[in-house]
Design a protein that fits this description.
The chain folds into 3 domains: about 5-135, 3-Layer(aba) Sandwich (Rossmann fold); about 140-200, Helicase, Ruva Protein, domain 3 (Orthogonal Bundle); about 210-334, Zinc Finger, Delta Prime, domain 3. The protein contains 18 helices and 7 strands. The protein has helices at about 5-10, 25-40, 45-50, 60-65, 90-100, 120-130, 140-150, 160-170, 175-185, 195-200, 210-220, 225-235, 240-260, 265-275, 280, 285-290, 295-310, 320-334; strands at about 20-25, 50-55, 75-80, 105-110, 130-135, 155, 195. The strands form 2 sheets. The chain has a 5-stranded parallel β-sheet, with helices on both faces. Strands 6-7 form a two-stranded parallel sheet. The longest helix is centred in the last third of the chain and has 19 residues, at about 240-260. The chain is elongated and about 75 Å long.
C-alpha cells in the first residue's frame, strides 16, 4: 500500500491488525507510526492500551503476549515495535500470530533502513493488514519533494533555492524536514516566500558559496569565480568537508557523461534523463562543450582517485583544502 492511502485510511479510522513499515527511508515510517500513536486512542486510553517496544530491548514472545491481550475500556489497543530491525528471530512467531490476529490489537512493526526478506511474513502481512516499503527518494526528485513539503504548509520557494537545499542537505528526508520546520519558525508567518537569504541566515547554506554555485562556475570554467570559491571552501574545511564536495563533483560530472549519450537534447529530455530541475537542464549543453566526452571520463577517474586520497590512501598529510585545490586544478587543466 502507498503512503498516502495508508494515511487516508487512518484518518477515516479504517484500522488494520498489522502494519509492517519497512524500507530505507525512515521518514515515512516515522510519520505513519507517529500518526497511529497520536490518533488511534484518546489520551486517557493510552496508559492501559498503548505499548511501545524497542527492538534491541525486547523479545518477540513478550510482544506477541501483549498483542493477545484485550483492550481495557477502549475499542483498540496499540502495540508499536520501534527499531524492529534490531529484534532477533521474530519472523516465525509473528507469522504464527498473524494467522489469527486479534482484531482489537493494532500492531505496528517499524523495520528501518532495510526490508524484511522472509516472503512468508510479508505476504501474510499484506493479506491481513498493511505492508509498506518506504523507498529512498532519488536525488533528482528531492527538489520537487522540498517544494511540495513547503507548499503543503502554506509557504513557497523558488526552484533554485529548493535545488540548493537538496544538494546541501542530502537525501535524509527527516533531516530536510527538520531544517525546513526550523526555517518556518525563524521567518514566522509574516512572509510566505522562502528566499536564499532566509536559507543562508537560518540554515547556514551560503547563497554564494554552495555546491550548486561551485558546479555552475566549474561547468562554465569561470576561473576567477572558481578560484574565489575554492579558497573560501578551503578556509572553511569543517563547514565544507572535501569528501562531501568530491561526492558532489562526481554526481555533477556523471551527469555530464550521461548528457553526452543523449540523442534528444531538449530541455525536458535533459531534465528527465539527468534528474535535474528544468531551469538547470539547458546549462548542460554549455557544460558539455567545456567538458567533451573523453575529458569527462578522465575527470571521473581523477575524482575516484581523490576519493581514495580523502580516505588516507597515498595521502600522508594533505588537508581537505589542499585536496580540493589539487582536484579543481586537475579538472580545469587536464
Amino acid at each position: 500500500m502507498e503512503f498516502n492511502q495508508i494515511i487516508k485510511e487512518l484518518k477515516n479510522k479504517i484500522y488494520k491488525p498489522i502494519y509492517i513499515l519497512m524500507g530505507k527511508e525512515a521518514y515515512y515510517i516515522d510519520i505513519v507510526s507517529d500518526f497511529i500513536a497520536d490518533n488511534v486512542l484518546e489520551e486517557h486510553e493510552r496508559d492501559f492500551n498503548q505499548t511501545i517496544f524497542y527492538g534491541k530491548d525486547c523479545d518477540i514472545t513478550t510482544v506477541i503476549h501483549t498483542c493477545q491481550r484485550y483492550p481495557m475500556m477502549s475499542n483498540y489497543q496499540v502495540v508499536i515495535i520501534k527499531e524492529a530491525q534490531n529484534l532477533k528471530k521474530f519472523e516465525d512467531q509473528l507469522i504464527k500470530y498473524l494467522e489469527n490476529p486479534l482484531n482489537t490489537t493494532i500492531l505496528v512493526v517499524c523495520f528501518k533502513y532495510d526490508i524484511i526478506k522472509k516472503k512468508t511474513l510479508t505476504d501474510i502481512a499484506d493479506k491481513k493488514g498493511v505492508l509498506f516499503n518506504s523507498k529512498e527518494i532519488s536525488e533528482g526528485k528531492l527538489p520537487a519533494w522540498i517544494e511540495q513539503y513547503i507548499s503543503e504548509r502554506g509557504y513557497s520557494i523558488d526552484s533554485k533555492s529548493s535545488f540548493v537545499l537538496a544538494q546541501n542537505l542530502g537525501n535524509d528526508l527527516s533531516k530536510i524536514a527538520n531544517e525546513i520546520d526550523k526555517l518556518f519558525i525563524a521567518i514566522g508567518s509574516g512572509t510566505k516566500k522562502i528566499t536564499a537569504d532566509d536559507i543562508e541566515k537560518n540554515i547556514g547554506i551560503s547563497k554564494d558559496y554552495n555546491q550548486y554555485e561551485l558546479q555552475n562556475v566549474l561547468g562554465k570554467k569561470e576561473i576567477v569565480k572558481i578560484t574565489k570559491m575554492v579558497n573560501y571552501f578551503s578556509n572553511n574545511e569543517k563547514t565544507y568537508p572535501f569528501i562531501i564536495i568530491n561526492m558532489a563533483l562526481f554526481q555533477f560530472f556523471e551527469k555530464i557523461l550521461r548528457f553526452h549519450s543523449l540523442k534528444d537534447r531538449s530541455q525536458n529530455s535533459i531534465a528527465s534523463t539527468l534528474m535535474v530541475p528544468p531551469f538547470i537542464a539547458s546549462s548542460y549543453i554549455e557544460f558539455a562543450r567545456f567538458y567533451p566526452l573523453q575529458k569527462t571520463v578522465k575527470i571521473i577517474s581523477i575524482i575516484r582517485e581523490y576519493d581514495l586520497k580523502s580516505k588516507g590512501v597515498d595521502n600522508a598529510s594533505a588537508s581537505d583544502g589542499q585536496l580540493l585545490k589539487e582536484i579543481i586544478f586537475k579538472i580545469l587543466y587536464i
